[in-house]
Amino acid sequence: MPDKPVTLTEFIIEEERHFKQATGSFTLLLTQIENAAKIIASHVKKSGLVDILGSAGKTNTSGEQVQKLDVFANELLVSTLLESGQVYAIMSEELDEPVFSKKNRGHYVVCFDPLDGSSNIDSNVSIGTIFSIYHKNPDLFQPGIKQVAAGYILYGSSVMFVYSCGRGVNGFTLDPSIGSFLLSHPKIKIPEKGDTYSINEAYFHLFDQKLQQYITDLKEKKEYKLRYIGSMVADIHRTLLTGGIFLNPANKKSPEGKLRLLFEVNPLSFIVNQAGGSATTGYLDPLIIKPTQLIHRTPIAIGSRQEVKNYILSLQRSL
Length: 319
Ligand code: P6P
Fold this sequence. Notes:
It is a single chain. By secondary structure, this protein is α+β, with helices and mostly antiparallel strands. The protein has two domains: 178 residues, Fructose-1,6-Bisphosphatase, subunit A, domain 1 (Fructose-1,6-Bisphosphatase, Chain A, domain 1), CATH 3.30.540.10; 121 residues, D-Maltodextrin-Binding Protein, domain 2. Helices cover 30% and strands 24% of the residues. It has seven helices and 15 strands. The strands form three sheets. An eight-stranded mixed beta sheet has the order 4-3-5-6-7-8-9-10, with helices on both faces. It has a five-stranded mixed beta sheet with strand order 12-11-13-15-14, with helices on both faces. A hairpin with a 4-residue loop joins strand 9 and strand 10. Helix 1 runs antiparallel to helix 2 and helix 2 runs antiparallel to helix 3. The chain is globular, with a radius of gyration of 19 Å. The termini are far apart. The structure holds 6-O-phosphono-alpha-D-fructofuranose. The site of 6-O-phosphono-alpha-D-fructofuranose has 10 residues, from helix 5. The site of 6-O-phosphono-alpha-D-fructofuranose (P6P) has 10 residues, from helix 5.
């Protein structure tokens, strides 16, 4: 008799047994995120068929055109999380302010990017939901090292739910025939080094000299290939599974960097660290940065430990 596949729900309940002080609140919260992810996945899969495409005519706090699917995913996550009774507050990349639960009784703060890479929706490129979970704290702007858990859902050729609550990283693939996420990638470990670098080279002329030299050196080694999807969840997922390095560094147009500490950098850095990789702004670990605002941007490089180390060394070299 083949082993019965482990569902995400079963896995979360089993994981809870390792946390003596667990009350079941975290399990309930994560299960609610799972439920929202299944609904978003079903809409993403149909997005080419119903009039849910196209811009909702608004721009979000990052100044990006908001797609209708963004609005739907954001509204679904906001209502699901607040109604779960497990959150003290939520922060969304699509909202200008944090939202507090009415009765303030939840134990957790959840930060999320409801649909990262949404500019790719119309071209059917993989997009994702990213989430970070912290303990309740009067100061919502906590550094990434305080994360209790982080994860992403990748809406790609298959739908995957990848998360960590500090005991390694596990990946689950949605079986649409039964509507359950099944454990498909247990104990994910990122390779120590890789042969792929992922960066938007269109900005090469805007990079500082040391970064330009780093990229030129990678090319001259001739053992690397460039892969860049322009959807962070997809680029990070490939890096997590096959190794390499993903970079979205500062450039003359975006001196602070583009990616958001709370909604993209902290959760994805946490996951890659849990899988044995590392992350850097170029000069420090992003997980120790105390956010100063909701849309706190930072340069970032995330990936295989050896690749990130080489990147840091190249920035320290005098030209
Ligand atoms: P650029 C998508 O808008 C996003 O936030 C990330 O998912 C992605 O990695 C990045 O921006 C792409 O930025 O400047 O290369 O288009």
